[in-house]
Amino acid sequence: MLVVGGGITGAGVALDAASRGLRTALVERGDFAAGTSSRSSKLVHGGLRYLSQGDYRLVAQALAERQRLLRNAPHLVRPLPFLVPSYGSRTRMRAVSSALWLYDLAGGFRIGRLHRRLSAGDALAHAPSLRPKGLVGAHLYLDAHADDARLTLAVVRTAVLDHRAVAANHVTVTGLLSGTGGRVAGASLHAGGRDLEVRASVVVNAAGVWADGLAGDGEVTIRPAKGVHVTVPAGRIRTDVALVLGLPSDGRSIFVVPWAGTDRVYIGTTDTDYDGPLDSPVCSADDTAYLLDAVNAALTTDLSPADVVGTWAGLRPLVAGAAGTRSADLSRRHRVTSGRPGLVAIAGGKLTTYRAMAVDTVDRVEVELRRSHRPSRTANLALRGAVPNATGHLAGRYGSEARVLDALVAADPSLGEPLVPTLPYLRAEAVYAARYEMARTLDDVLARRTRALILARESSVAAAPDVARLLAPELGWSEAEEAAQVEAYRAGAC
Ligand code: FAD
Question: Which among 344, 351, 448 is the best mutation to test ligand 1's pocket, defined by most ligand atoms within 8 Å of the CB?
Answer without folding.
Answer: 351
